[in-house]
Backbone:
């Protein structure tokens, strides 16, 4: 297969061609899953009909309207729990099979997470199997079936109270089971994606190190060439020289004046690691526009994290985090993923980050308040001074309270 280049301008990890291949394969898997589910349902309803007819007209007639349909409902739920447990893994295995075939160079897993979200379920979404837990649909099918075999309304009313009670309890249990299994299965795939990307990155790093050590082979022969280093890289050289620096050793703080929105013109990022510190402009880290000082989406996301805001998991945010990840790795030389991803709490930084803008102004105000004396205080001090001063030489007295205040507050 021909080599496929990443679309770096759009911030994608995958080329459009590779993504289309993955989508086509997943659409086929969806059809297979739908057919499997339909076949399983058909078997359950066939078994329900057979067992209903077996007790009809016998002394066990009550079970035909209670335990028999309830057992069928539980079989449907068991089947859908199995599908819920396996489906995210099927999606991920389908993606891996194509990634391994094309031997694609991966930089992060954000778009892979987004594809799994699209074809399985993402944060705050219920799995497609959740609809099977709705008891009213099953009850409607069952009533239609038994009426087709001559069941009377009087019979249905006779047993409906007990049947409804048991079905409601079973539905509540089914609802919890499906949601819990869904969350667990989705989290397992999240971990699998992150492990895959880390292993891929470690393998790539070994290849790069080997090529650097071997002067006979130019670095450009290893995979794709890296993107140009930004202007901030010169100032951050001290961090890139640190051996095996990890993102949790980094500390980033926004400093300068606090603006009503966005960044003020004098805002900088105070960055430190291993007792080394540098101040870097947001423009140099491509977090703001150099001409207008307008903060861009990456800057908004990073500033939001500094202000302890949640960055939810969405395809749009995945692209923003991907660019931020590249900026941090490129400038500070860290090889691990500087961001944690959770379906419940979104993306969060591994590094320490704080919004320290306006702290200098606050300290200056506090100092000014300590050094400021009110008019009433001055009048009081003047009155006390008048009482103890020579009226002919009122300003020659030494050691009075005003001198003491001036000495200690100037």
Residues:
């Amino acid at each position: 297969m021909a080599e496929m280049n990443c679309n770096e301008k759009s911030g994608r990890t995958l080329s459009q061609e590779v993504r289309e291949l993955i989508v086509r394969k997943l659409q086929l898997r969806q059809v297979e899953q739908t057919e499997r589910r339909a076949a399983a349902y058909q078997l359950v309803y066939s078994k329900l009909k057979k067992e209903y007819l077996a007790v009809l007209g016998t002394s066990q007639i009550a079970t035909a309207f209670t335990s028999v349909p309830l057992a069928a409902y539980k079989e449907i739920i068991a089947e859908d729990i199995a599908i819920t447990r396996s489906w995210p893994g099927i999606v991920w295995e389908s993606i891996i099979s194509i990634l391994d075939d094309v031997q694609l160079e991966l930089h992060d897993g954000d778009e892979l997470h987004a594809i799994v979200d699209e074809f399985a379920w993402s944060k705050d979404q219920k799995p497609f199997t959740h609809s099977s837990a709705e008891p009213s649909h099953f009850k409607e099918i069952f009533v239609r079936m038994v009426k087709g075999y001559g069941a009377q309304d009087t019979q249905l009313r006779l047993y409906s109270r007990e049947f409804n009670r048991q079905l409601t309890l079973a539905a509540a249990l089914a609802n919890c089971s499906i949601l819990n299994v869904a969350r667990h299965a989705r989290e397992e795939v999240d971990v699998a994606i992150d492990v895959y990307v880390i292993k891929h990155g470690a393998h790539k790093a070994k290849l790069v190190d080997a090529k650097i050590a071997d002067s006979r082979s130019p670095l450009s022969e290893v995979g794709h060439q890296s993107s140009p280093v930004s202007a901030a890289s010169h100032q951050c050289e001290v961090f890139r020289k640190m051996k095996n620096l990890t993102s949790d050793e980094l500390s980033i703080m926004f400093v300068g004046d606090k603006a009503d929105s966005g960044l003020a013109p004098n805002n900088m990022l105070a960055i430190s690691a291993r007792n080394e510190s540098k101040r870097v402009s947001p423009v140099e880290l491509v977090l703001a526009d150099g001409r207008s000082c307008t903060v861009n989406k990456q800057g908004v996301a990073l500033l939001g994290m500094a202000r302890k805001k949640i960055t939810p998991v969405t395809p749009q945010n995945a692209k923003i985090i991907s660019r931020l990840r590249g900026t941090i790795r490129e400038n500070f030389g860290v090889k691990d993923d500087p961001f944690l991803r959770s379906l419940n709490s979104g993306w969060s930084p591994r590094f320490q980050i704080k919004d320290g803008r306006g702290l200098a102004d606050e300290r200056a105000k506090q100092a000014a308040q300590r050094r400021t004396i009110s008019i009433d205080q001055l009048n009081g001090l003047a009155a006390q001074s008048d009482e103890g001063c020579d009226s002919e030489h009122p300003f020659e007295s030494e050691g009075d309270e005003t001198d003491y205040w001036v000495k200690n507050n100037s």
Summary: Residues 1-12, 205-232, 385-406 have pLDDT under 50 and may be disordered.
